[in-house]
């Protein structure tokens, strides 16, 4: 789905206050249902540490690069870390080990990206996925997008927050972007990964106040390659496509046209053929994100460039201190 613009405003005509007021009771019901699920579910302790990377809002905040970093970093330190995902958009219910032959239709886009850095399991039931991972040697489980999922006991909960939009209008879905009451989400958080658009971005006082006394680790996404030369037609079906387009422009790319699709959009042949046609008319090259690239029909990938990014932590030492007890626990198991 595409996030409605009014979710990002607290006042003014863009905020659509009358619509927000009508939707707010539904938000209260949604929040109560989330709270009840968290309170009444008995979580499974899989017997190994669980690092949860989640968010409080709907849409993309940068979770996948954070999970990739954790998976890669722990395995470099000799820790047998496995990723665990529900495989959003995929048909596999699992528990299923993601392998190179899988497609986004099978397991979703995010697990395919994470599999580059270590073993990844897709499971609709995270408890069953965790059991299977441990049975296959996992000493640490990195749970992708699980902050509102109560099925596992979590050792470390990291909440990824987009510094530009924060928590939007502060309302719970469908009146706003929140998945649950904000205070409830923060009370279960050990640290916030605050994802900034640029290293020098100034965090708003409103967001600082909302985060209160939670440990905050500023971060940003940095490109792994130089911006391609020549005119570019950029397209993306992620939580906030504008973030991708803006990052290209900041890197000096000549972006002459953009096209945004819904988050996790499943591209069809006719979509890509249309993009190629427009790009040809503009004498521009097509470029997209890694997450979008794995969702493209394979026959069309050759003519599309990819803009890969990695997360950079401004205070990596704080994150390392949070991870240290987990690393020590894993080594003794």
From TrEMBL:
Pfam families recorded: LpxK
Pathway: Glycolipid biosynthesis; lipid IV(A) biosynthesis; lipid IV(A) from (3R)-3-hydroxytetradecanoyl-[acyl-carrier-protein] and UDP-N-acetyl-alpha-D-glucosamine: step 6/6
Enzyme Commission number(s): 2.7.1.130
GO biological process: lipid A biosynthetic process; lipopolysaccharide core region biosynthetic process
GO molecular function: ATP binding; lipid-A 4'-kinase activity
Any one annotated GO CC term: plasma membrane
Keywords, ordered alphabetically: ATP-binding, Kinase, Lipid A biosynthesis, Lipid biosynthesis, Lipid metabolism, Nucleotide-binding, Transferase
Binding site for ATP: 57-64
Catalytic reaction(s) noted: a lipid A disaccharide + ATP = a lipid IVA + ADP + H(+)
Its job: Transfers the gamma-phosphate of ATP to the 4'-position of a tetraacyldisaccharide 1-phosphate intermediate (termed DS-1-P) to form tetraacyldisaccharide 1,4'-bis-phosphate (lipid IVA).
Family to which this protein belongs: Belongs to the LpxK family.
HAMAP family associated with the record: LpxK
Listed name of the protein: Tetraacyldisaccharide 4'-kinase
Protein source organism: Litorimonas cladophorae
